[in-house]
């Protein structure tokens, strides 16, 4: 497994029927720096995987060490969604996001319950938007992404939120309603958020060279904020809060910025999308998590925190060996 910049394990997703089949999926970088999605099976020990059970579903060769994306997550439809960044370099000079014959800069959607025992160990959902139409590949669900970090589904509505890291001007949140039939083009590298990116004229075969920034086929973000202002530099996507403990955040999408450590809650219950900054700061927010009750967690480079209120984070002290908050009682 590769361990360089943006290397290592990117994401793990448990099969919806994990209790029955013991399958879980891992997105990681291998020793050649390729992005790999593989399936493993739990061993007889419920806390240990069987390393010999691994089968590779998808391998994507990478030419740089940046913009790998890497999250995998099962949607409410039971299909596995895979987020890929444009693969770099800066400004996507390889035109990966808008070029149809590759996975970089795309969201994939595959059926891991097909071809379980035979390669490629997955199938194509019959309603994928590009199935049987040549380019993009049939696995592709959406395109025009730069560095999706991270994406999530609203557990109540099934809506999809994608936080996409920007180049120099915009950090954005893309949205796909549960009713969508897929095929959205979120615009990169022609667009960066709602602004015209004006890509460098390096690859004359790139569709971005001739595409218009006012093309109505692009799906523009529901929210964006400026890169390089107030310490912001890189969005980290979270979840819509559906837990029972923080009523004032119910139905609001939470996200943060890796550089500034700021945390926001977005809401559209009153019409247009609005966002409010929470009274929480956490340096280097790298990811969010959601438990079975809908409570949310945040992690930076050293600690996992639970969100206990609009201005309160709880750390269990596990990483530092501080057991003062531990209890032998199970709630």
From TrEMBL:
InterPro entries: 6-blade_b-propeller_TolB-like, Glc/Sorbosone_DH, Quinoprot_gluc/sorb_DH_b-prop. SUPFAM superfamilies: Soluble quinoprotein glucose dehydrogenase. Residues 5-298 form the Glucose/Sorbosone dehydrogenase domain. PANTHER family: ALDOSE SUGAR DEHYDROGENASE YLII, HEDGEHOG-INTERACTING PROTEIN. This is Glucose/Sorbosone dehydrogenase domain-containing protein. It holds the Pfam family GSDH. The lineage of its organism: Eukaryota, Metazoa, Cnidaria, Anthozoa, Hexacorallia.
């Amino acid at each position: 497994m590769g361990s360089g910049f943006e290397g290592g394990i990117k994401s793990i997703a448990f099969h919806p029927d994990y209790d029955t089949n013991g399958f879980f999926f891992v997105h990681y970088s291998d020793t050649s720096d390729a992005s790999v999605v593989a399936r493993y099976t739990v061993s007889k020990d419920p806390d240990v995987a069987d390393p010999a059970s691994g089968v590779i579903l998808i391998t994507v060769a990478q030419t740089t060490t940046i913009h790998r994306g890497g999250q995998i997550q099962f949607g409410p439809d039971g299909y596995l969604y895979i987020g890929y960044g444009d693969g770099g370099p800066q400004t996507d000079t390889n035109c990966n996001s808008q070029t149809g014959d590759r996975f970089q800069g795309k969201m994939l959607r595959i059926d891991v319950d097909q071809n379980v025992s035979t390669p490629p160990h997955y199938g194509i959902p019959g309603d994928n938007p590009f199935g049987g139409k040549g380019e993009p590949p049939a696995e592709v669900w959406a395109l025009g992404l730069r560095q999706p970090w991270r994406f999530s589904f609203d557990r109540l509505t099934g809506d999809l939120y994608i936080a996409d890291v920007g180049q120099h001007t915009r950090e954005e949140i893309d949205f796909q309603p549960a009713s969508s039939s897929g095929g959205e083009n979120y615009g990169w590298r022609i667009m960066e958020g709602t602004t015209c990116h004006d890509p460098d004229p390096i690859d004359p075969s790139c569709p971005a060279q001739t595409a218009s920034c006012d093309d109505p086929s692009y799906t523009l973000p529901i929210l964006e904020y400026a890169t390089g202002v107030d310490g912001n530099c890189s969005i980290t996507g979270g979840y819509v809060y559906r837990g029972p403990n923080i009523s004032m955040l119910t139905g609001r999408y939470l996200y943060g910025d890796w550089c500034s450590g700021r945390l926001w809650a977005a809401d559209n219950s009153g019409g247009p999308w609005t966002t409010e900054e929470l009274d929480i700061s956490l340096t280097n927010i790298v990811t969010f998590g959601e438990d079975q009750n809908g409570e949310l967690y945040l992690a930076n480079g050293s600690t996992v925190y639970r969100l206990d209120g609009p201005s309160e984070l709880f750390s269990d002290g596990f990483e530092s060996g501080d057991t003062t908050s531990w209890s032998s009682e199970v709630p």
